[in-house]
Write a structure and sequence with these properties.
Layout (H helix, E strand, L loop, with lengths): L10 E4 L4 H17 L3 E7 L18 H22 L5 E7 L2 H8 L5 E6 L12 H9 L4 E5 L24
Helix pairs in contact: 1-2, 3-4
Length: 172
């Protein structure tokens, strides 16, 4: 796995294990093929132990190493799912500790495009973009594409590997 500070070019796609991020992965792979460029699949994670109240049982708190391994498994499952559907995809995995927005912004400093998933719009009048996508769209130095999730599908790490195809818009 690479670190976000290394020579990032091409496309960057953020993944958090959601159905919308899987749709963004698939779209990115198709666009990367059309542009003849690689795709960096980025998963940002933050240790949660520091957010636990001081009186929480220590035995119930995951260690930073356990959380990093869990984040790595989520990233690996997302990449495996993508390669099952897009075996020719030219991708690299990036696992980075830190909040999603700063991590993604570091990864796209030299990228052509940032791709993020977009969930369904739940309430009229609310933004269709979540907080990460909104902040990245506002601050990224490259164009940001949000890919809608057409249908809900469980993440491969959550359903034991049985999953449905996620129909997405393919780049034209």
């Amino acid at each position: 796995m690479r670190t976000p500070a290394q020579d990032t070019e091409g496309l960057v796609v953020g993944t958090d294990g959601s159905s919308s991020s899987l749709a963004a992965l698939r779209w990115s792979a198709a666009m990367g093929r059309r542009l003849h460029t690689k795709v960096d699949v980025v998963h940002a994670w933050t240790p949660t132990a520091r957010h636990c109240v001081h009186y929480a049982l220590i035995a119930n708190r995951p260690t930073a190493g356990e959380e990093r391994r869990r984040a790595g498994r989520l990233l690996d499952a997302s990449v495996a799912w993508l390669l099952e559907h897009e075996p020719e995809a030219d991708i690299r995995s990036v696992l980075a500790e830190g909040p999603a927005v700063p991590v993604l912004l570091r990864c796209v400093e030299r990228a052509e495009l940032l791709v993020l998933g977009r969930g369904p719009r739940r309430e009229p009048g609310l933004s269709a973009l979540g907080p990460v996508a909104r902040e990245c769209a506002r601050r990224a130095r490259c164009p940001v594409v949000t890919v809608p999730c057409v249908v809900a599908a469980p993440h491969p790490a959550e359903d034991g590997g049985a999953h449905r195809d996620i129909p997405t818009t393919t780049p034209t």
